[in-house]
Write a structure and sequence with these properties.
Number of helices: 7
Shape: globular
Strand order of the largest sheet: 1-2-3-4-5
Distance between the termini: 77 Å
Order of helices and strands: HEHHHHEEEEHH
Largest sheet: 5 strands, mixed
Structural class: alpha+beta
Length: 164
């Protein structure tokens, strides 16, 4: 009995991030791999434009370094990830990540299509959830916190002012 308990506890210490449900969607597989630090698997699900942005913007050209940058060290190690909602109109999915912090972490993965395959085109969030309405704003793209690739608003104000 004691040996079995020791093996169970020891085994839990070496477990990776738990995923509530089977990570069968492209977004879930990407998110899981990126958080786990599995660069090769995460890249399999990325669009070519996201790969180019990661190459240009992320440390060492690695998606995992960009994701790691969003997760403060004080959060500790991730415990689990859970799918929450999908937004068909914006082709995005909201996930909650669970770290040893007081609230779930809201993460949105954006999707698109490339060569007939569903691919990840970006992400936003990676912030502590503030409730259902703010999470829906994040999902629908009304809140662009930590949006990647970054949206360049250069010239937008000029265009708006020109139309007055």
């Amino acid at each position: 009995m004691v040996i079995a308990l020791c093996l169970l506890i020891g085994g839990l210490a070496y477990m990776s991030v738990a995923f509530f449900g089977n990570p069968t969607t492209v977004a879930a597989r990407f998110l899981y791999a990126a958080i786990e630090g599995d660069e090769i698997t995460a890249r399999e699900y990325m669009s070519s434009s996201l790969k180019a942005a990661v190459q240009q913007e992320c440390d060492g050209g690695n998606v995992t370094s960009c994701i790691d940058w969003l997760i403060p060290d004080e959060w500790g190690s991730p415990l689990a990830i859970r799918f929450v909602f999908g937004s068909g109109s914006n082709q995005s999915e909201l996930y909650y990540g669970f770290w040893p912090v007081p609230a779930p972490v809201s993460m949105v993965i954006s999707l698109g299509s490339e060569n007939g395959k569903e691919v990840v085109t970006g992400w936003r969030g990676f912030i502590l959830s503030e409730g259902e309405n703010p999470d829906m704003d994040l999902l629908e793209g009304d809140n662009l916190v930590n949006q990647f690739p970054r949206i360049d608003f250069t010239g937008v104000t000029e265009d708006l002012n020109r139309n007055r």
